[in-house]
From TrEMBL:
Protein name in the entry: Amino acid adenylation domain-containing protein
SUPFAM superfamilies: Acetyl-CoA synthetase-like
Species: Dyella tabacisoli
Pfam entry (one): AMP-binding
CDD domains documented for this protein: A_NRPS_Srf_like
Entry-linked InterPro entries: AA_adenyl_dom, AMP-bd_C_sf, AMP-binding_CS, AMP-dep_synth/lig_dom
NCBIfam families: AA-adenyl-dom (TIGR01733)
Keyword entries, A-Z: Phosphopantetheine, Phosphoprotein
Length: 458
């Protein structure tokens, strides 16, 4: 209980202190009418408050829904309506959608109410199949879709996972957007293994030299980085990378040249390629990178613990080694489905025809990702079979942008593509056909209109 759980600047919380604070907030939520299975939105930046809030919602038997602060408020409001959020946990100075139940942690009356709550654990019974959180991702119809992740999936990511052996004494950086599933790794894996979470402020994330300094000062031993951030920061982080016991990089295809430079100059003890969609809880496969083979891509590796991956053809039959197939992912990490989207859930989450005996209810997630087995058993990623893309670690459905453009006046047809005029420099480009007799709006005007409904990165 006295072990270090969370570090934020000069603040230090032990596991005992963190548990007591989370219990108080959980008791307050129950007192305000939150019940088992309710959704509770969280609009907080990376902070001890965020960790406390996520723990409290789970302790109350509810489902937490992290909101991305950079999203337009209308888009956030849609998410709250879609998940029927009972309340929202936030701070008074933060922009967040209006909702009846509001818990502002920095208000004096809220702090006084929290102080009156019990610090003891709640008697809530939590089933492994119950929904722990809902995370919204880009949707091809123009609306984001909520992915429902069960408790058992988080446990599978953290315990006996086969890819990351965190233990007491380790310190894992928390630098991801709380509304992206990398935060599941950064928060729940340390908490379930006795390691400590180190909150990385946004100002430190934005400046490579400050991030390198923080890694040294806080003795960080583990970290996740998107491919885009890694490619930009690797030269500047330099020797700080060598301090890490494990550096996981993913979210897009790795650049063998940059990986090779890091391995030669400042290798962490383990450099890991992490692959997995939100629908399978952060990671489905990983690969320990020890060398770069000229002319070959870096594989995504093999399934992590309690995970199955099949490469299937168009008839959902296994493909031979070396032949391209679509990745279907099974095991404990598979999501419950998409909230309020039964048809899409049925399309993408299918019965597992290869399930072990006694697991007749097992399902596979149809990823849309293409890959092939190498002779050594590792999987090589080959791309997508649809119009979903990854840019700077952000998962984007091109159809969502097209739908928003199509809804604007004076436009008859729209097409959005990814261009990569220079290697590694991807950008979104929209092609527009105006209505007869109408002029195409200028780019600045279009961006302003789209920002009312889409995040800045789209």
């Amino acid at each position: 209980p006295a072990a270090l759980a969370v570090i934020e600047g000069e603040q230090r919380y032990s596991y005992d202190a963190l548990n007591r604070r989370a219990n108080q907030l959980a008791h307050l939520l129950r007192a305000r009418g939150v019940r088992d299975g309710d959704s509770v939105a969280i609009a907080l930046p990376r902070s001890i408050d965020l960790i406390v809030a996520e723990l409290a919602v789970v302790k109350a038997g509810s489902t937490y829904v992290p909101l991305d602060a950079v999203l337009p408020l209308d888009r956030q409001a849609h998410m709250l309506k879609d998940c029927a959020a009972r309340c929202i946990i936030t701070r008074s100075g933060l922009a967040a959608p209006e909702i009846g139940g509001r818990v502002e942690l920095d208000r004096a009356d809220t702090r006084a109410e929290l102080a009156r709550q019990s610090e003891h654990n709640l008697a809530t019974a939590i089933d492994g199949s119950a929904c722990a959180y809902i995370m919204y991702t880009s949707g091809s119809t123009g609306q984001s879709k909520g992915v429902q992740i069960p408790h058992r999936a988080i446990e599978r990511l953290a315990i006996n996972n086969g890819y990351l052996d965190l233990q007491a004494g380790d310190r894992f950086a928390c630098a991801a957007n709380p509304a992206f599933d990398a935060s599941t790794l950064e928060i729940w894996v340390p908490l379930q293994t006795g390691a400590a979470i180190v909150i990385v402020a946004q100002d430190d994330v934005m400046v490579p030299a400050r991030l390198a300094e923080l890694i040294g000062e806080q003795q960080i031993t583990g970290m996740w980085m998107t491919v885009g951030l890694f490619n930009q920061y690797a030269p500047a982080l330099g020797g700080a990378l060598s301090q890490l016991r494990a550096l996981i990089v993913g979210g897009d295809v790795l650049d063998p040249h940059i990986i090779g430079e890091v391995l030669r100059n400042h290798p962490p003890k383990r450099l890991i390629n992490g692959y997995g969609p939100t629908e399978t809880t952060t990671f489905a496969a990983t690969y320990d990178i020890s060398q770069v083979v000229p002319g070959r891509s870096i594989p995504i590796g093999r399934p992590i613990g309690n995970t199955r991956i099949y490469l299937l053809d168009g008839k959902r039959q296994p493909v031979p080694i070396g032949v391209a197939g679509e990745l279907y992912i099974g095991g404990a990490g598979v999501a419950l489905g998409y909230l309020n989207l039964p048809e899409l859930t049925q399309e993408r989450f299918i019965a597992d025809p290869f399930a072990p005996a006694g697991q007749s209810d097992a399902r596979l997630y149809k990823t849309g990702d293409l890959g092939r087995y190498r002779a050594d058993g590792n999987i090589e990623f080959l791309g997508r079979n649809d119009f979903q893309v990854k840019i700077r670690g952000f998962r984007i459905e091109l159809g969502e942008i097209e739908a928003k453009l199509q809804a604007l006046p004076h436009l008859r047809e729209t097409l959005v593509l990814v261009r990569e005029d220079h290697p590694g420099d991807k950008c979104l480009v929209a092609y527009l056909v105006p209505q007869e007799g109408q002029a195409v709006p200028d780019a600045a005007q279009l961006r302003t209109l789209l920002l009312q409904n889409l995040p800045e990165y789209m």
